[in-house]
Specification:
alpha+beta, about 425 residues, globular
């Protein structure tokens, strides 16, 4: 567990503390990751560490300070707030002078925000407390408890409920004088956060309802309720991606979601596809997370494929499979014919290499591979296999072998050979034909 407190009232940095609770099963040193601006005090199991062993990236806690069983480490720190290159992004609205903050920790920057065990297979529950100016709203992964407002200060303390177990790269918050929009037609309570200067342009009802429709369709397809306590969305200014699937708090690219002029049909379909992709991640990526970034395709490829499958079911006139091929196959082939191509499963030595795995093989080839697998075993066995996989690994981690094992059990066939050719082998599978008379 991480109990994380951050002060968001300063412009260029945030002072914080984190209390990490974890269980150790055998004696030895414990190493936490931290690349923030400054490390402060370190306390291990109630005792102050006078000279922390810290090299600017890793904090080593030596074995004598650690007990076999439950441990508590409390660390104070300072982390950077900047317009770019920081874990907390600051955006200045030139229209009205307002300042907005939001986090971006994927894939390996949670340790830039606070000291933690920054790898996807070490999931944790997170409790966030954020001190912010009184006129600000704060959004996080879990629902907010009633805020604490001190009469003699211009600040508000926002505290959020403990999250479900999530990976560190999925921790998120946003803070600022956001405008909020709710829809009267969506079946679940969803709040959309958007800059005050652009709220009039945002199609709040359409965006909220598309998220609601996607969540309800996926609940039926996976036979599992929405895995987190809430679903809210943020239109993030200057966001570098189309979207980011933080549990309970999906961030979307503001420019791609607010149209400055009447949108074309492809623009609308593209926005819907992005929503479906990010909501699908709440199950594939957030509920069940790849064990390591070598299996990045396990969440990204699946989200893209499930988004297309959903759109084909919900809007038969969308021509989604034509779009699926046009957006994915050419990009995948362009990389896959080169000598530098990689398998869908790409071996990564360490966390610093995680960003190198993002590209056409994971995002564009993997969805096509999944469509082939769906066809190979049949739609019913494929769906039953996904349900089995999600049930077996809920709030945990898994690998591609776990996925193929679940689908193989439901289709009553071994998929080991298929996996070697489609997942572990770069390029296209080679088919040999042998005719015997």
């Amino acid at each position: 567990r991480y109990a994380l407190m951050l002060n968001l009232t300063e412009r260029d940095s945030s002072r914080g503390t984190v209390t990490a609770q974890f269980k150790v099963t055998k004696p030895g040193d414990v190493i936490l990751d931290f690349r923030g601006q400054r490390l402060g005090t370190v306390e291990v199991n109630g005792k102050r560490v006078e000279s922390p062993d810290y090299n600017g990236a890793h904090l080593r806690i030596i074995a004598p300070a650690i007990v076999v069983g439950e441990n508590v480490v409390t660390i104070s720190f300072v982390t950077k707030i900047a317009a770019a290159g920081a874990s907390i992004i600051r955006y200045h609205d030139a229209t009205d002078g307002a300042e907005y903050l939001y986090t971006l920790l994927v894939p390996a920057d949670a340790n830039q925000l606070f000291p933690c065990f920054d790898q996807p297979d070490l999931k944790a529950r997170v409790l966030l407390r954020a001190i912010a100016p009184r006129d600000w709203k704060v959004l996080a992964n879990s629902p907010e408890n009633p805020p604490t407002i001190a009469a003699d200060t211009p600040e508000t303390v926002h505290e959020f409920a403990w999250t479900e177990p999530i990976s560190t790269y999925l921790i998120a918050f946003a803070a600022g004088p956001w405008a909020t929009v709710t829809s009267k037609t969506s079946q679940r309570p969803i709040t959309m956060y958007v800059r005050k200067s652009r709220v009039a342009e945002a199609e709040g009802d359409s965006i909220i309802n598309a998220n609601d429709v996607a969540a309800r369709w996926l609940e039926g397809y996976f036979a599992r309720p929405f895995p987190f306590k809430k679903l809210d969305v943020l239109l993030a200014p200057a966001f570098p991606f189309g979207g980011m699937e933080h549990p309970g708090a999906i961030f979307y690219n503001e420019d791609r979601f607010i149209f400055r002029e009447r949108p074309t049909l492809p623009q609308r379909l593209g926005r819907t596809a992005t929503i479906y992709h990010e909501v699908a991640h709440q199950w594939f990526g957030d509920l069940v997370t790849m064990r390591w970034f070598d299996d990045l395709w396990l969440k990204e490829g699946f989200a893209t494929y499930m988004a297309a499958k959903m759109q084909a079911s919900l809007d038969t006139s969308s021509g989604v499979w034509k779009t699926f091929y046009l957006r994915n196959k050419p990009l995948a082939y362009t990389v896959d014919v080169t000598r530098g191509t990689t398998p869908v499963w790409q071996s990564l030595e360490n966390l610093d290499q995680a960003k190198s795995n993002y590209g056409a093989i994971v995002y564009n080839k993997a969805p096509g591979v999944l469509k082939q697998l769906d066809y190979l075993v049949g739609a019913d066995a494929f769906q039953r296999g996904l349900r089995r996989f999600l049930t077996a690994h809920a709030y945990g981690n898994a690998s591609w072998r776990d996925l193929l094992a679940a689908i193989g059990q439901e289709s009553r066939r071994s998929l080991d050979g298929w996996g070697k050719q489609y997942i572990l082998r770069p390029g296209m599978p080679v088919i040999d034909q042998d005719l015997q008379v």
